[in-house]
């Protein structure tokens, strides 16, 4: 499959998907080479942007998928995912124990991965980590949110490191930041509808607008798709800044998903799953995890100005100081190893106590790449 450019950038640094554009030349330029773009809306090929000039190589790369958003195998092979499912018993008394491990050890030991299991030294059982519980859909929405936020922070850090090392085009950071902003800024909602025939349908989704306005639109969609009128509709739950959880709800509640017309985000819940979903939304809403400084950089849209800022600092104007060093340090200065370690003394303490990288990420809430760098600096 050939890859087509699907995102264009305007003068303000905002990104737009080709689907939101009219056919032909508009205001948008290529995020990588700034060449003006022409939206092509053909019948045969998927809609895409064509360069109004030579096509740059960077734009031929596929926009990377986001694990736990675009897919839930989290980059593990089918064999690993199948083994996990086989060793998972949702209704057992201890659903977190990987079953058959002891009996099948010989056959599956090559599938055992640090990130997926932790050994219970008392019982010699293998327990699922949060990562494997996401693949299985057994992790709660609240715990998923925490995991996902850390994974998103890591993705930004890795891109930043790559740009600093000169191996990544900066536009990849912009694209990632744009996508993360649209997830983290959005509210996650749970709507309920009652149809003519008394059936109850739920919908989960995300929006950056007023949920009430969104509810009205979905009522019209639902009436059109079902040929029934919606006699009652209400907002059951809204959780701000949690759009990143949306796709995981569909993954975790996949058995309750209903295909209505060409809509896939409606749910038909029995009493038990309805109660569970509402409780999960409540827990998510009641335990907000404030954005840290790196996340605020994304959510407030400040990432859009970083390119200009870097260009300016190259000219000798150190705008970083004007920002009170709010993100990063002025270019050309590095923290000494000692300063670096004392800045992350919580990570050092965890690692010195023999915690693994995963455990340290969990207990400090810091990104995996930071923990790895601290570990490398300590060695
Ligand atoms: Zn280009």
Question: Which molecules are bound in this entry?
Answer: zinc ion
What is the structural class?
Answer: alpha+beta
| Largest beta-sheet characterization | 5 strands, antiparallel
H/E series, N to C? EEEEEHHEEHHHEEHEHEEHHHHHHHH
Radius of gyration, taken over Cα atoms and rounded to an integer in Å:
23 Å
Uncertain residue segments: 316-332
- Total count of helical runs of at least 4 residues: 15
Q: Write out the strand line-up for the largest beta sheet, numbering strands in chain order.
A: 10-8-9-12-11
Approximately how much beta-strand content do the residues carry? 15-25%
- Name the assembly state: single chain
Protein name: GIY-YIG nuclease family protein
InterPro entries: Phage_T5_Orf172_DNA-bd
3D architecture notes:
The protein is an alpha+beta fold. Among the domains are: 7-60, no CATH class; 78-136, no CATH class; 184-286. The protein has helices at residues 78-86, 101-108, 130-136, 141-164, 171-184, 211-226, 246-252, 271-286, 293-299, 306-314, 319-322, 337-343, 345-352, 357-364, 368-378; strands at residues 7-9, 15-17, 24-29, 36-40, 48-51, 117-120, 125-128, 187-195, 200-207, 230-239, 257-260, 263-267. Strands 10-8-9-12-11 form a 5-stranded antiparallel sheet. A 3-stranded antiparallel sheet has the order 3-4-5, with no helix packed on it. Strand 6 (117-120) and strand 7 (125-128) form a beta hairpin. Helix 13 (345-352) crosses helix 14 (357-364). The chain is globular, with a radius of gyration of 23 Å. The two termini are 44 Å apart. Mean pLDDT is 89; it is low at 316-332. The structure holds zinc ion. Residues 30, 32-33, 35, 51, 56, 59 line the site of zinc ion.
